[in-house]
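User: Structure tokens for this complex, please. No commentary.
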Amino acid sequence: MKTDRELIQEFQRGSDAAFNELVRRYLDLVYRFFQKITPDKMEAEDLAQTVFIKLFKALKKFRFESEFNTYLYRVNVNTANTYFKRNKWRNMLHLDQAPDTGYVETSQEKQWRKEEVWATVVRLPKKQRLVVMMRISQALSFKDIGNILDMTEGSAKVNYHHGIKRVKLLLGNNK
Amino acid sequence: MNFEEKLQKTFSSTSKMLDPEQFINNLTSTRYTQALKRSQAISGYLALIVVLFVCILGFNELDHGAILMDGSYYYSTSIDSDQNEDSEYFDDLALYIMEQEEDIWMAFSFLDELEYDKIVNLMEEES
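Assistant:
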């Protein structure tokens, strides 16, 4: 089986088949990421498509300064950020009308929807938002988050700590 | 259950994944559509630039020497000099006709038809 690097190099030499192989390899990862961002499957598919279109353009000039995996996460996060900015007001205004596809809890614990959590996360400062987004949606380690976002592991932990504290406050976890 | 686990559970998803081949087909057609739109937009901009360039050139050509004064256009001396040259040419032509034509009254009536009435003065100046 060819490595990511080999596939990218083939793609840079003009092989679209190599790019399609990368799509097959990473489609699940990308699609799962966006499924956690939005309850709408079509929207998640559109966002995944946006990521691969960006990759198609960017990989032609990819210099292997970072791992492809890391780069892909960055593209995912940036695309999600753009999506949140675009839908910030819509998410805030139509929160009550959104379909409930998130966590259904039968106990007395407070129940949240994805939209509700993301509407809270997007209100965080940029670094905190990115770290919290990666941690709660992908369950990545702080070391990986640090690599992806170009920060130290300690900085990722601190940002997460402040971010999650604020999310907790905004979601009213004390209920 | 701690707060982080609760959040992660919120995002747990069991929905089925996409068909990769279908996705690649959609992706390819979207890429081609975008590339087509981009090239159309570039062609459109280039055409617009050419049209603007031609318009500016045409306007400059038409506007050549025109001077706007009190809401009216006046023409510069370069056009006046052209008109003077034309006038001199007609004067010479008229004198030539008068000299060459045997029947001077025929020549007078011909110039009269052209509404050229400077011939008498010219002939006096010549003599």
